[in-house]
Amino acid sequence: MSSLTDLASRVLGGVVVTCNDQFYAEASNLLLPHPARFDPDAYDAKGKVYDGWETRRRRTVGDDWVVVRLAAPGVVERVDVDTAWFKGNFPSAATVHGAWLEGFPGPNDVWQLPEHVWRPLSPRTPLTGDAVTSLPVVPEGAPELAGRRVSHVRLTIHPDGGVARLRVWGRPVPDPALLTGTVDLAATENGGRVLGSSNEFYGSADHLLAPGRAATMADGWENARRRDGGHDWVDLELAGAGRLRRVEVDTTCFVGNAPGRVVLRGADARAGDLGEPSSWPVLLDLLPQPDTRHVIALDEAARRRAVTHVRLEAHPDGGMSRLRLWGELDDDALAAAARRWEDTALPVG
After folding, report:
1. Which pLDDT tens digit goes with each residue over 107-150?
2. How far apart are CA 154 and CA 84, in angstroms?
3. Which domains does the chain have, with CATH numbers?
4. Contact 106, 113 (CB under 8 A)
5. Taking a C-beta distance cutoff of 8 angstroms, is the pair 50, 80 a contact?
6. What stretches of the chain show up as alpha helix (H) in DSSP?
7. Quick one: which of 3, 21, 26, 102 could link to 55 by a disulfide (CB 3.0–4.6 Å)?
8. What count of Cα atoms within 13 Å lies in the side-chain half-sphere of residue 298?
9. In a 3-state reduction of DSSP, which class is residue 10?
10. What is the reported pTM?
């Protein structure tokens, strides 16, 4: 799953647009980044408090549903429906639909959509209590949406009940109109992604590419304390081939555990073997300060170098909250982004 992005992630900007019922627990809980929690003593005037989305017991024909606007448009490959802690009140089954909706429709707009706008992503699938059920998106079950980008998903639970978390795994497809000029070529929403890292003991390397500032250390990448004389690293694939202009190395919230030294290396997969150390010249060598946002213009030599990948090295170890790599995509990369946008468009009809 590490090669895929949770397109619905609240951290990235996913949001619940509307739902038909959230009597016991709000639907916005579905997108929270942390695992669902359970307090056996938590009750309110309506009953047991759950960390998730829970509807009332249905006494009429029908099903309950929630609509989520994805943080970034993308091709969905898998949907995880997590019923953690819902043991006697989980839905019997779930169905997932997707849609491409222009602009930013609000709750009233969504309620008025005709049913044919919603295309099947994952067929009706039985659920188990207190468990994660993975619903793959395959051409057989989603003939219209397999390989196509969507902007919104609708989770339908049959007939009612509670779901703790919803994860919509896929690959972002950024609008090429938003990739012109100087942009963050590492940002997840622009198509950047983490390919691998040496260690993520305390925090995921994916956090480095998230929008916004970190609120706590939990929002950043942090490795275990290193005792072997080496260093930790993260390998990134950029949104496309381009040239970097400036970088942002942010150690915010890492006060006593920031790296002693940060090195950024760049490589062009079109021109050399990424497995060869000589393919990774240094772009920046920095002695960072703790709890500091470092914004640095690269020197002329680094700005002239075309890169498709970047390696972040933390010497010897330590944590960082964000990494921004600002630059411009080259003409071929912009053309490739435009082709992918067109190729993944949902057929009209």
Report:
1. 999 999 999 999 999 999 999 999 999 998 887 777 888 899 99
2. 20
3. 5-172 (2.60.120.260), 176-334 (2.60.120.260)
4. no
5. no
6. 107-111, 300-304, 331-343
7. 21
8. 24
9. coil
10. 0.93
